[in-house]
Amino acid sequence: MKTIKQLFAILAVLVVSFTIIQGQPAIAHAATDDSLAAIQKRGKLVMATSPDYPPYEFQTNQKGKSKVVGMDVSIAKQIAKDLHVKLVIKSMTFDSLLVALETGKADMVMAGMNPTPERRQSVDFSDIYYVGGQDFLVNKDEASKYPNQKSLANQKVGAQTGTLQYNLAKKHIPGVTVKGMDKGADLILALKTHKLVAVGMEKPAAEAYVKNDPSLVAISSTYNLDENSSGSAIAFRKGSDSLVTAVNKSLKDIKQDNLIHKVYLKDAGKYMKVNTANTSMGHYWTYFAKGVQYTLIIAAVSGVIGVVLGVLLALMRLSKVKVFKWLSVSYIEFVRGTPLMVQVLFVYFGVGVIVNLPALISGIIAVSLNSGAYIAEIIRGGIDSVSKGQDEAAQSLGLSRSDIMKSVILPQALKNIWPALGNEFISLIKESSIVSIIGVTDLIYQLNIVRADTYRGVMPVFIAMVLYFIMTFGLTRILNHFEGRMQHD
């Protein structure tokens, strides 16, 4: 009965918190539209994008440094110039973009996004700035087998999750099984390993892959589409009328001067040629090095915070004070009962509505809070494993409860739990990869950038796998060294 009451109490707190968080932006928008004035006042325009979709947006390696480029980036720079502000680009996965917009992490989203009726219910859109059309990518050796859209009936077709291409394939191809993935590079890898027979993409992106990968060919779709929902547009928070008006003015000038075809697409093509001129993994070593650096920082800081939080929660759970015990049990059960990915998203987007936390800080907080719950149970088990005779002997010597815990119980418990604690530290290195979904440049994030830039699906994955093994194996040897010393003490 107590457990049920605790569960309902936790859910009630979450519902109230979520209502407060969700209500704040709505109130702000209802009062007045200061979207343009706010941007001009702070002097920067924040654009969220998923830079894995050439030629719209992708990353290029310039003298060892990563830079987001592409047609959409060029358009955004012109818009920022017209507004007399600086452009700031935030990178994250495609399915997180609109969430970032709605929670105030970005002022606009540009990602070759189509203004579908479903999306228009949640966000505002600019005028259409580009209509590229729809294609399918198929393997060249299967081009005769799948020459057109009709031949894809009853087959497995891939598309990026949450995109127009995903919904179109599901709706218009008879008997199709649509496989959604977050990254275009993952879809291409699945296609080339024959897990898919085709991948739906916008025509410019499909053409970019074909130009840089001779094993692929593009076939045109036969969708009968309305340009108002199938073209590319810029997304804004609901009620951003003044900002949308200003951006539409810039887009009108861009289209009148035909800058997209005359300049922006050509510039994107030049960057793509630079990327594919040298696709060796050695050329991208700085990407992997940066990914390892961020992965180790997240794991190390989260590990330290997790241990401190874990000790506190374990002591609270063993406390005779019912409130402390209830809080500890509630926290541990809730954290262990929800996925780490959801926790990362909530800290970054949910808490971020109240406090605008950077992606790296949000990732560290989420991983730390998650790790603390598991470490708490490890420490509690270690404390329980210490013989009660040790406690009684310490009491007979006149030691206080705090001295007994600090000098007698915890040192012995640490010796007992060291292997389990070591496993948690090793898991932190691997689990920290989930923060890539909010744009933290850890090893997984950098891996996906290299795959998108080089059009190579397998080798970057292999390199990342080796690097993870080196990190975890090295930590294992260090932990074993200290475990051996404990055994001899």
UniProtKB/TrEMBL annotation:
It is found in: Cell membrane. Its main location: membrane. The keyword Nucleotide-binding does not apply. Pfam families: BPD_transp_1, SBP_bac_3. The chain crosses the membrane at residues 294-315, 345-367, 457-479. Residues 292-479 form the ABC transmembrane type-1 domain. SMART domains: PBPb (SM00062). It is a multi-pass membrane protein. One of its GO terms (biological process) is amino acid transport. Residues 1-30 form the signal peptide. The keyword Metal-binding does not apply. GO terms for molecular function: transmembrane transporter activity. Coiled coil: none annotated. Keywords: Amino-acid transport, Cell membrane, Membrane, Signal, Transmembrane, Transmembrane helix, Transport. It comes from the Bacteria. GO terms for cellular component: ATP-binding cassette (ABC) transporter complex. PANTHER family: GLUTAMINE TRANSPORT SYSTEM PERMEASE PROTEIN GLNP (PTHR30614:SF20), MEMBRANE COMPONENT OF AMINO ACID ABC TRANSPORTER (PTHR30614). NCBIfam families: HEQRo_perm_3TM. Belongs to the binding-protein-dependent transport system permease family. HisMQ subfamily. This is ABC transporter permease. It comes from Secundilactobacillus oryzae JCM 18671.
